[in-house]
Fold this protein.
Amino acid sequence: MAIFFSDLVQFRGLFQMIFVLGIGGSFPYGFHISVINYPSVHIRRFINETWIERYGSPLHSETIMLLWSFIVSVYGIGGFLGSICCGYLTTKYRKKKCQMCTNLIMLVAALFMALSKTAKSFEMILVGRFLYGIGTGFSLNIHPQYVGEISPKKLRGFTNSTVAVFLTLGKLTGQVVGLREILGSEALWPWLLASSGLSALVQLITLPFFPDSPSYLLIQKGNEEACRKAIRKLWGEGDHQAEIDDIMKEKAAMTSTKSLRVLEVIKERSLRWQLYILMTVMTTLQLCGINAIYFYSFEVFHTAKFEEYLIPYMSLGVGLCECLSSILCSTLIDRFGRKVLLWGGYTLMCSVLALLTMTLSLQHQFFWMHYFSVILIFLFVVFYGIGPSGATISVMVEIFSQSFRPSAFLIVGCINWMGLFVLGMIFPLIVDNLGPFCFLLFMGILSLSAIFIYLYLPETKGKSIMEIKAEFNKLNFGKKETSVTENFPKEQLFCTKL
């Protein structure tokens, strides 16, 4: 405990910056995922009333549903576009400047949302939602990279996992403010959709007081003095020379390489297994079954005979459970490592899904099965939060060096936003055709991913970028080729052309 408090004092600048990056980074992404469900009835009614006032006749229910679906899905289109543009712009203009411009986009989107009802224009909701998507596409790409670059090795797992903490905190906040008693009423729903602008405003005001990442200042700008100043501001006074030496080694290795575009990253042999790992963990995060759990939670709570007015609060409990388990993950990740949390989390989630498939299939034969299903839902969310939710981000940041990270995260963004869109399209069909047996599909994905991660992911805990790269070189080139380089002195190795 004494060590914890001493770190809290020494690294207070780092913790402050983690909060500032999180509140305008992954927080809005989680917020917009959960908050859009609450005003859906009010928005559909508003669309119909606006149409009647303009043209004197109501819209067909199918047309209203089509417009509503487009409002929901245009967020993913905006996110995809923002993610594609982010890699190039952050390389050219730096992450801090791009994140501040993102805040301006989010504020404009919030303005569209707030004024939509007054202007009697549902098109403004559509535009606002699209702009929110673009802004979130940028911030969800920038936040993990930025927060991973500002942390020392011993706290890197903790800082990377805060991306998941702020994402789940955003989900939870969306669930809370979306309640009918707060901003989810018919009179206040425009302010509910506009409330995301507050987090953008907070970050826009506070981020200029924090530095660029030390690795960016030293590697890309070549300013060692600015790097040392940033380290002192974020990590406090002390001997940080070992960390600076690691950055210098990375810089020396990068003098013989250039920043690669996405297609070049995909073709590069030295990054082959990093990409395999990246695509595995990101696809598994999308297809692990967490969306199916949230979908089935409402049905399980209904069949468990909970009162109708209690069900939104039960769902809020599920969101709170995910948030608390993500916070727990941030404290465990530097103790147990990323690899254990990933394959262990996948295995436990797979076991819970097997039991949940059984309890949902038997719920009409045994009345007490409903309560087991409720317990299993909460257990699944806990294992998801402790394992893949936080560890996935940490692995994605750590397995790529500074020059390859923007292109790698562009690939991550494409998988994430395309996955959201495809899952939104096919998930209702899967549920309709398979019912509770849809969890068998997710079980297969989780079991295969657990085996793959256990066999092939090197542990990244406490290692520098160059040490992690050496581990992957054994997979990319084989032991025979890497053993040749091990005979060279380290200084010579880092300065030799690849």
